[in-house]
Design brief:
The complex is a heterodimer of chains A (484) and B (183). By secondary structure, chain A is an all-alpha fold. Chain A is 63% helix and 2% strand. Chain A folds into two domains: 338 residues, Cytochrome Bc1 Complex, Chain C; 109 residues, Cytochrome c-like domain (Cytochrome Bc1 Complex, Chain D, domain 2, Orthogonal Bundle). The mean pLDDT of chain A is 92. Classes of the chains: A mainly alpha (484), B alpha+beta (183).
């Protein structure tokens, strides 16, 4: 023990870091900030550390070549001992990091921590969120499979819509005319050098600001932030009712970080690594590309926006959102901090959470996508065929052969792109059915050219049988009155 | 050497040093920018667009739409399978063709042809197109992207270009049935 102390002193005589480090660790923080609400920032830092370590381990074996990356991931998964586990840790670490960063952001927003004098801490935090999202997207690209390939295509298609600069942006993004070797290597450079470098620098700045300005005190309803008096009030609070950060507050951070790390290890061990999915060969088109969980909401949004609104929303929406986040502390830098006195702040969080949650939920079963194999893989339920005439059964065959089932469900099976047809005969008369089939409309293709008159007759005869027992199909009342 | 001279002389040296570094920075900036922007510069070189064979015309029967692939002419050694590009070839009447890019005109996902209902369907956001590539339903704002083509010595050639995207369709811009085949 004495030897260790001696060696330590030898180093500290030269480094002279001991005293300032002790002073930093023991700096007083307001008593109530030693709370379980204040542990998310340190947990995000811990997970970031895990990502750096596992990322370096993966880089030892990963090959950033479009021709080799997928095979390298297979080798990692199946041939290198514990390779699958390192991949799983990195993948789950990414999900946990994004989740914790978002929770941290919601917490500091609701606790008014972005107000004077911590405006810059918030702004740097917003930039850190962008970088974390950037890491998630570029990381998904490095898992170079079909989802990555077509995800890049979607990214390029969005970038191409920027006025004037669009084509140049696509070429810069892809590193060439198509998604290929140059695309993967530049995303590798972004994911491994550029964004992590920025992340480390900005995390350092973020921490420095927290230390310089002090941790945000527990917000009390009625305690108003004023630029003229706040610093003195905060100083007085930490002096009067402060506790040393180490050990009085830090033990909760340490315990929570340990809990998060154990959770990541458990997820990685029990659920394994993510993919890779199918080979990134663009001539294999039997694929339904899907984004990673944190971008699912965007997938849903892109499906539901009206075509004309898509480009403006895609290009202006993120810019406005980012501007609002960056400017928030500048126009709301004073006033009430407690969420109990800030109903609009609480409602904003709820609205954003419900919106993103609903879109994400929708995207997990993607009702807007046709079920590409329903026509051959989902038979028509038996009850819709029993006791039917030959013509009606032929109509059921037309229904399958013409891929109607890909977009329309029967008895809950098949696509949900169009309405379910179990009760269609109640909603539409025979003439309306014929018109809808032939002319399409309301987001349905027109089948006029693709159905012979006999096929149309059979199909409509089948559709007319689709009504609940005891409920008559719709009929045109005027028809009976006019036609004898 | 008087004490009043010193700061001004040092000041001059500092300024000279800054100037030297500035010149070096400017000299470095030019090649660095050229390197970073190389995907744009390469784009303008002649031969960037090329005619590529999809194989014998006989592979594409009249009145049918068939899957075809080609190797992108601008390749690097690390491209692997990604340089293999797919497209849909529609032989309208034995004389005229339409060759569609595989990428949906919405966000670039691979569209699939359904010969029974004569529709192209996209698995991502539900775009659908008629057999002539025109928009049938869903989020796309336009029809499928089309390649220019020619028939030479019994083989079908297409003019390749950038991967088409809604804002940058490149050479694959037009969607017309009246375009004469340039044989």
């Amino acid at each position: 023990m004495r030897l260790i102390g001696k060696v330590g002193r030898w180093f500290d005589d030269r480094l002279q870091l001991g005293k300032p480090m002790m002073a930093t660790m023991a700096h007083p923080v307001p008593r109530r900030t030693a709370s379980w609400f204040y542990v998310f920032g340190s947990a995000a830092l811990t997970v970031f550390g895990l990502q750096v370590v596992t990322g370096i381990l993966l880089a030892i074996l990963y090959v950033p070549s479009a021709g080799e990356a997928w095979n390298a991931l297979q080798v990692l998964n199946h041939q290198i001992s514990a390779g699958w586990f390192i991949r799983a840790l990195h993948g789950w670490g990414s999900n946990f990091m994004l989740a914790i960063v978002l929770i941290h952001m919601v917490q500091v927003f609701l606790f008014g921590a972005y107000k004077f004098p911590r405006e810059l801490t918030w702004i740097v935090g917003v930039l850190l969120l962008l970088m974390t999202l950037g890491m998630a997207f570029t990381g998904q690209v490095l898992r170079f499979d079909q989802d990555a390939y077509w995800g890049l295509g979607i990214g390029a298609s969005i970038a191409s819509r920027v006025p004037l600069l669009g084509p140049a942006l696509v070429n810069l993004l892809l590193g060439g005319p198509i998604i290929a070797g140059a695309t993967l290597s530049r995303f590798f450079a972004l994911h491994v050098f550029v964004i992590p470098g920025l992340l480390i620098a900005f995390v350092g700045l973020h921490l420095l600001l927290v230390l310089k300005l002090g941790i945000n005190e527990w917000p009390m309803p009625g305690r108003i932030v004023r630029r003229a008096t706040y610093v003195a009030e905060y100083h007085e609070l930490t002096q009067r009712d402060g506790i040393p950060f180490v050990p009085a507050a830090v033990w909760k951070d340490v315990i929570f970080s340990g809990f998060v790390l154990l959770s990541i290890v458990a997820c990685a061990a029990l659920l394994g690594p993510f993919g890779p999915g199918g080979q990134p060969d663009p001539t294999i088109i039997q694929t339904a590309p899907h984004p990673d969980p944190f971008f699912l909401w965007l997938y849903a949004l892109l499906s539901y926006l009206p075509p004309a609104a898509e480009t403006p929303v895609l290009l202006i929406g993120p810019a406005v959102g980012l501007a609002v986040l960056l400017a928030l502390p500048l126009f709301a830098g004073e006033g009430e901090k407690s969420w109990k006195r800030r109903p609009i702040a609480v409602l904003t969080i709820l609205l954003v959470a419900v919106t993103l949650g609903s879109l994400t939920h929708l995207a997990t079963h993607a009702p807007w996508s046709p079920v590409m194999d329903a026509w051959s893989g989902e038979p028509i339920p038996e009850q819709y065929l029993k006791g039917r005439t030959a013509l009606e059964r032929h109509g059921a065959l037309v229904f399958q052969l013409k891929q109607c089932h890909n977009c329309h469900s029967l008895d809950g099976k098949g696509g949900q792109r169009g309405p379910a047809l179990d009760r269609v005969a109640v909603a539409l008369t025979k003439d309306q059915l014929i018109r809808q089939v032939i002319q399409g409309g309301g987001n349905m293709p027109a089948y006029g050219k693709n159905l012979s008159p006999a096929e149309t007759t059979a199909l409509v005869a089948f559709l007319e049988t689709l009504h609940p027992a005891g409920q008559a199909p719709a009929r045109d009342a005027s028809r009976a009155a006019i036609l004898p | 050497m008087s004490s009043t001279e010193r700061p001004s002389r040092r000041g001059i040296f500092i300024k000279l040093g800054i100037l030297l570094n500035g010149v070096a920075g400017a000299m470095l900036a030019v090649p660095i920018l050229r390197y970073v922007l190389s995907p744009l510069i390469r784009n303008r070189k002649p031969g960037y667009r090329a005619w590529v064979s999809l194989g014998s015309v006989a592979q594409f029967p009249a009145g049918q739409t068939r899957f075809a692939t080609y190797r992108n002419p601008v390749v690097t050694p690390s491209d692997g399978d990604t340089a293999n590009i797919a497209c849909w070839v529609r032989n309208i009447d034995g004389q005229r063709f339409q060759i569609f890019a595989i990428n949906c005109a919405h966000l670039g996902c691979p569209v699939r042809w359904f010969a029974q209902s004569n529709l192209f369907m996209c698995p991502c956001h539900g775009g659908a197109y008629y057999e002539d590539g025109s928009r049938a339903s869903g989020p796309p704002e336009r029809g499928l992207f089309e390649y220019r083509y020619k028939i030479d010595g019994g083989a079908l050639f297409i003019e390749t270009d950038d991967m088409p995207t809604p804002g940058a369709p490149g050479a694959l811009a037009s969607l017309t049935l009246r375009k004469p085949p340039c044989a």
